[in-house]
């Protein structure tokens, strides 16, 4: 007999692990909708899932926060059922050969700062900011960054009075050493500044491909943490960010200038990166590095030759300056995937505007872009089989 959760969900295969517990694919028995199911043995020494579920409830409704569908006990397990999300940023980083473009990093940074700021606004610290804990959505939310895994989160202020927790020292390292702030390594109680410094290390990891304190060998975990700490302290901000826009060094200088109980000015940090984004001439079109890679892989099979169109002759279509010379169809498909079709195998056809008006909307269609007299119609594989 197949495992059931709360008489409502069917347990499927294992798809990952969190800081505490294993994560499985699940299915809503009534709707057939897929969900994520996190399991934690009730006999575990330090149970965390009930605590994590309560934090998710507090954060519910925030952009980039997955919805909790159910929490309870089934047999020997505490169970948390949530929205199923897409790949983590670590997965996508690996998919892109372990380096991301400046444009992709800046588009991610804007959303990631927003997520951290929202968690802080609800009086919590995340305390384990790393690429594995940021996931992309699925379907129409494929461009949205989600933050997950609140097993190590901590309340940093009283919800009513906003009284901040006291400054303390001699604290053990909580989180992931690779992305931990310098103050965390030094044993200082974490506060809002530390989540943001950790986020800075994540952004540099994406840009550089690695961080200077990766790959250090040590006999014990404690010794490894000490080596990482020494290397991190010895690496100046300028050395870490050398060869990259000065905004990244400015980000770190700002985070490290904050006092323990200061409220970070996240608007300033987002503005730093948005100004850089504009100066570089990028377009916030949600075409990430992996969007292009996924599309190119889907086209490797047997694509018929197509004429190359100069996009500069199409004033009605907004496009990034570096796309001139690609096929018009390819560009529009990038945009299609960026607007919620990530991971689908798009099929397409050109239809006159008049014909579109006559036929009306069909479920599953999404209008992507307009070229003179035509629109591009794109739909996912589940409809393409029917229409081809």
TrEMBL record:
<dbReference type="Pfam" id="PF00069">
    <property type="entry name" value="Pkinase"/>
</dbReference>
<keyword id="KW-0963">Cytoplasm</keyword>
<keyword id="KW-0418">Kinase</keyword>
<protein>
    <recommendedName>
        <fullName>non-specific serine/threonine protein kinase</fullName>
        <ecNumber>2.7.11.1</ecNumber>
    </recommendedName>
</protein>
<dbReference type="InterPro" id="IPR050235">
    <property type="entry name" value="CK1_Ser-Thr_kinase"/>
</dbReference>
<dbReference type="InterPro" id="IPR017441">
    <property type="entry name" value="Protein_kinase_ATP_BS"/>
</dbReference>
<dbReference type="GO" id="GO:0004674">
    <property type="term" value="F:protein serine/threonine kinase activity"/>
</dbReference>
<dbReference type="GO" id="GO:0005737">
    <property type="term" value="C:cytoplasm"/>
</dbReference>
<feature type="binding site">
    <location>
        <position position="38"/>
    </location>
    <ligand>
        <name>ATP</name>
    </ligand>
</feature>
<dbReference type="InterPro" id="IPR008271">
    <property type="entry name" value="Ser/Thr_kinase_AS"/>
</dbReference>
<comment type="subunit">
    <text>Monomer.</text>
</comment>
<comment type="similarity">
    <text>Belongs to the protein kinase superfamily. CK1 Ser/Thr protein kinase family. Casein kinase I subfamily.</text>
</comment>
<comment type="function">
    <text>Casein kinases are operationally defined by their preferential utilization of acidic proteins such as caseins as substrates. It can phosphorylate a large number of proteins.</text>
</comment>
<keyword id="KW-0547">Nucleotide-binding</keyword>
<dbReference type="InterPro" id="IPR000719">
    <property type="entry name" value="Prot_kinase_dom"/>
</dbReference>
<keyword id="KW-0808">Transferase</keyword>
<keyword id="KW-0723">Serine/threonine-protein kinase</keyword>
<dbReference type="InterPro" id="IPR011009">
    <property type="entry name" value="Kinase-like_dom_sf"/>
</dbReference>
<keyword id="KW-0067">ATP-binding</keyword>
<dbReference type="GO" id="GO:0005524">
    <property type="term" value="F:ATP binding"/>
</dbReference>
<feature type="domain" description="Protein kinase">
    <location>
        <begin position="9"/>
        <end position="278"/>
    </location>
</feature>
């Amino acid at each position: 007999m197949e495992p059931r959760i709360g008489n409502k969900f069917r347990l499927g295969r294992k798809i990952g692990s969190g800081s505490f517990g294993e994560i499985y694919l699940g299915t809503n028995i009534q709707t057939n909708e897929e969900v994520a199911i996190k399991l934690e043995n009730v006999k575990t020494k330090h149970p965390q899932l009930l605590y994590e579920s309560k934090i998710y409830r507090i954060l519910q409704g925030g952009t980039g926060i997955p919805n909790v569908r159910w929490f309870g006990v089934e047999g020997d397990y505490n169970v948390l059922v949530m929205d199923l999300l897409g790949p983590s940023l670590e997965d996508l980083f690996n998919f892109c050969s372990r380096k991301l473009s400046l444009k992709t990093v800046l588009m991610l940074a804007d959303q990631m700062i927003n997520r951290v700021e929202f968690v802080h606004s609800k009086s919590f610290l995340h305390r384990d900011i790393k690429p594995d804990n940021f996931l992309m959505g699925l379907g129409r939310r494929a461009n949205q960054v989600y933050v997950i895994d609140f097993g190590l989160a901590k309340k940093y202020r009283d919800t009513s009075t906003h009284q901040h927790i006291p400054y303390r020292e001699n604290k053990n390292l909580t989180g992931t050493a690779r992305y931990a702030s310098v103050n965390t390594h030094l044993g200082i109680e974490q506060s809002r500044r530390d989540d943001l410094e950790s986020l800075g290390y994540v952004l540099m990891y994406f840009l550089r491909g690695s961080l200077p304190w990766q790959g250090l060998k040590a006999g014990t975990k404690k010794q490894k943490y000490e080596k990482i700490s020494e290397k991190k302290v010895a690496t100046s901000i300028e050395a870490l960010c050398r060869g990259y826009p000065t905004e990244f060094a400015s980000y770190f200088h700002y985070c490290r200038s904050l006092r323990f109980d200061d409220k970070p000015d996240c608007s300033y940090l987002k503005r730093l990166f948005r100004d850089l984004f504009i100066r570089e001439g990028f377009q916030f079109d949600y075409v990430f590095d992996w969007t292009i890679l996924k599309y190119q892989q889907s086209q490797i099979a047997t694509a018929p030759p197509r004429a190359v169109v100069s996009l500069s002759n199409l004033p009605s279509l907004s496009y990034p300056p570096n796309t001139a010379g690609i096929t018009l169809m390819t560009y529009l498909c990038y945009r299609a995937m960026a607007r919620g079709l990530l991971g689908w195998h798009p099929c397409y056809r050109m239809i006159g505007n008049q014909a579109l008006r006559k036929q009306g909307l069909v479920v599953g269609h999404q209008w992507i872009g307009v070229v003179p007299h035509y629109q591009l119609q794109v739909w996912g594989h589940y409809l393409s089989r029917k229409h081809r």
